[in-house]
Design brief:
Blueprint: H1 2-22, H2 24-30, H3 36-52, H4 60-84, H5 89-96, H6 99-111, H7 117-134, H8 143-165, H9 171-193, H10 205-226, H11 232-239, H12 242-254, H13 260-279, H14 283-289
Length: about 300
C-alpha cells in the first residue's frame, strides 16, 4: 500500500518539476517587461489569494510553521534574483542545482540520522546531471555566486521544512501561508532593490496568471502533498528534473537544441531519480533519508 502512495508522490513531484521547468520560457519572456521581484510578488500574491478562497489558514502553529517555510522559499527566490544581477545565467542554474546535494545532509542534520547511501549517490548523480545540462564551466565564487549559493541553501531548507511540517497541517492552508509570506517579502524587497511592485503592463498578465495558477498553486500543492509521503532528500532529487523539463520546453517552444553533453546530463538526472525511487523501498532506507515529523 505504501509503495502505491510513494509512486503517486513521486509522480506528483515529477509533475511539479515539469511545471517549474516548463514555464521557464514564459517567465523569461515576462521579465523583459517587468522586474523580477515585482513579478514574483504578483505571482505569489495571486496564488495565495486563490488558495485562501478554498481554505483560510487558522491556528498559531500553522502560521508559525508556514511562515518559516515561506521565509526559506523567499530567501531562495530573492538571493537567486540578486545573484543574477552580477553572475551569468549558467552559473546561477548550476549553483542553484546544489540544493540537490545540500538537502540530504540538511535533512540528516534535522533528523539526526545519516543519509541513505542511495540518496547520497543519487544526489551526486543528479548534480552531475545538472552540471552537464547547464554547461557549467569556469565557475568562480564572486559576490553573485555566493548569493546564489545562499539561494541553493534557501531552497534546500524549504524542502526540509516542508518534510518536517507538512504532516502537521492541512495542505491548502499550509501552502497558502508560504505563498503569502513570499508575496509580502517579495513586494517589500521590490521597493528596496527595484522600482516597486506597480501595476504590471497588460502584456505580462498572461504570464502572471499562468505561473500563479499552474506553478505557484499547482506545483507547490503537489510538492507539499508529495512530501507527506516521501522524504526531503528524495523530493530534492526528483525535483532536480526541473532543468531537464526546462530544456525540453525550450526545444519545443523556442527551437533550442540539446547538445550531446546536455543529453548526458538529462540522462544522469533520470538515472538518479530511478536509483533513489527503486532503492528506497525498505523501511530502513526511507527512515534514513526522511525527516521524522515532530509530535
Amino acid at each position: 500500500m505504501f509503495a502505491v502512495r510513494e509512486n503517486r508522490a513521486v509522480a506528483a513531484l515529477l509533475a511539479a518539476s515539469f511545471l517549474f521547468g516548463a514555464t521557464f520560457v514564459v517567465v523569461k519572456s515576462a521579465l523583459e517587461t517587468i522586474e523580477p521581484l515585482s513579478f514574483i510578488s504578483w505571482r505569489f500574491l495571486i496564488g495565495a489569494l486563490l488558495l485562501a478562497t478554498l481554505a483560510l489558514p487558522r491556528g498559531v502553529a500553522l502560521w508559525r510553521n508556514g511562515t518559516l517555510a515561506g521565509l526559506a522559499l523567499f530567501t531562495g527566490y530573492a538571493l537567486q534574483t540578486l545573484g543574477l544581477e552580477v553572475t551569468t545565467a549558467g552559473n546561477s542554474a548550476l549553483i542553484t542545482g546544489l540544493y540537490v546535494v545540500i538537502t540530504p545532509f540538511l535533512a540528516a542534520l534535522f533528523s539526526r540520522r545519516p543519509p541513505s547511501p542511495w540518496v547520497v549517490g543519487g544526489a551526486a548523480a543528479a548534480f552531475a546531471g545538472v552540471v552537464l545540462l547547464t554547461g557549467g564551466s569556469g565557475l568562480s565564487l564572486d559576490a553573485g555566486e555566493l548569493l546564489t549559493l545562499g539561494c541553493a541553501l534557501g531552497f534546500a531548507t524549504h524542502i526540509v521544512l516542508i518534510a518536517r511540517y507538512a504532516h502537521r497541517h492541512p495542505i491548502v492552508p499550509f501552502t497558502t501561508v508560504q505563498l503569502a509570506v513570499t508575496a509580502v517579502l517579495s513586494a517589500a524587497s521590490s521597493w528596496i532593490f527595484e522600482s516597486g511592485p506597480g501595476i504590471p503592463d497588460r502584456s505580462v498578465w498572461g504570464a502572471i496568471a499562468l505561473t500563479s495558477i499552474g506553478v505557484t498553486v499547482g506545483a507547490y500543492l503537489l510538492q507539499v502533498w508529495s512530501q507527506t509521503v516521501v522524504g526531503a532528500a528524495t523530493a530534492a532529487i526528483v525535483l532536480s528534473a526541473e532543468p531537464a523539463f526546462g530544456v525540453a520546453t525550450a526545444w519545443v517552444v523556442l527551437g533550442e537544441r540539446l547538445s550531446l553533453q546536455g543529453w548526458l546530463g538529462a540522462g544522469l538526472i533520470v538515472a538518479a531519480i530511478y536509483l533513489v525511487v527503486t532503492r528506497q523501498r525498505d523501511e530502513t532506507s526511507r527512515d534514513a533519508e526522511a525527516v521524522t515529523p515532530a509530535h
